[in-house]
Amino acid sequence: MDALSVTASIITVVQLAKSVTVLCFDAASKLKSVRKDIHHIVEEIISLRTVLEGLNRLVSNDSNPLSANRANFETVASAIAPLARCRIELQGIESELGKLIKSKSGPTSWIFKEKDIMARLDRISAVKHTLQLALVVDQTSAILETRVQSMSLKSSIDETNAESKRRAIIEWLSPSFHSNKLNDTQKIRTPTTGNWFLHSDLFKDWRQSPGSIMRLTGIPGSGKTVLCSSIIEELTEWRAERKDIIICHYFFDFAAQESQTVGAFVRSLLALIVVQGLVIPGAISNMYQRHHDGFQPPNDHNLLKMLHSLLKEVSETYVVVDALDECKELTHLLEAFDEIGAWHLPNVHILATCREDREIEETFTGLHSTHVSLDEAVLEDVHLYVNAALKKDRRLKRWPTKVQADISAALMRQAGCMFRLAKCQVDIIKTCFTLSELQKAMSSLPNTLDETYARILNNIEPALANDAFRILS
């Protein structure tokens, strides 16, 4: 088995996933009564694609070839059978959807096909979780392998043993690290994105005030996630000056089902604290031993108890959480925030983003949090993003200065303070090759995200499939 054959298997499954998604869009447009079921299929397929992309990055990592990394080799080897199962199940769904679209009986045909399609989808979900676990273990191993290698030059046997225990504890927590989400978001921001907030007294007060809690709200597409990435980068640079602070971040995401639980959230916080700490916190070590040296998984109640004990031991800790409203256990999550707030820890600073939501608002009001609305404030960030795209993207910077000014004006007029809408509209403008095409596109730019998505999906072509998937994600 070699990396090339694994890559070929991944590409085959990804292409099938694209085909199934396109069929889903077709079926949803023709069979409106089953759109909810079709939407569930699309969500699961997009989630699978996210995992496959992670596996593909692992295989394609030139700086860490499979032949030199046994952890990577074992992870990839364990993925062969699940990939084959995914291919079989996706082919089955593709076949059934094709028949459904061609059928004249419409929704009636769905009644007879639904059970088989959903059963296949369940099997795909099980396979996806298997692949996800393999990736999490590999990612954790990679992080800790680097630490172990650097320590081996100067560490004693006792220090090496302690690091081995740290490795075991983090693997026990099985965290959902969100470096991919963070990296993807940082690609679309400019160096000055979010400066209006990062240079404000609001941010300074949140960073310095004991036990500070802040809630940032905005409509969908207003740039909450992009601002989160700017905040995390600013805190990370600050940490380079102050080695004693700890930075934790978490992205709830509709497209990543496994990230939408309270357990995954708390596990990631704990793991990030352990990774950044110089020693294994006593609370973590004791809890690990009480669970038979990691043989038993911790429940949510014990995770919160562990977090409480841990936060009392560590120094200044900054927790940045994006998209609270995308947590499928929202009520449980807000109960957890209530509990964290009741600890009254002066060294813990929490910043969370979300859409306007009454339940979230009531909880954070009770926590005496500061509230900031982003809907108008991000207008300058949108303008910076549009201008940066016009200067750097090879498909846009070729236009004359006057035309670029017209593009900027049209995009700002339509997108307003919606960061995601501006990005989608930039993607539309990129496809124009002639001035007449460009003028036509600018004169008919969609006004909302829904209209933008509909236009992209209605005009989807194989060459643009990746863009469509990226937008939906």
Automatic annotation (TrEMBL):
UniProt-recorded name of the protein: NACHT domain-containing protein
SUPFAM superfamilies noted in UniProt: P-loop containing nucleoside triphosphate hydrolases
InterPro entries according to UniProt: NPHP3-like_N, P-loop_NTPase, PigL_N
Entry annotated with the keyword Repeat: yes
Top-level taxonomic group: Eukaryota
All residue ranges annotated as the Nephrocystin 3-like N-terminal domain in the record: 193-355
A Pfam family matched in the record: NPHP3_N
Keyword list, A-Z: Repeat
Domain Azaphilone pigments biosynthesis cluster protein L N-terminal, residue spans: 1-137
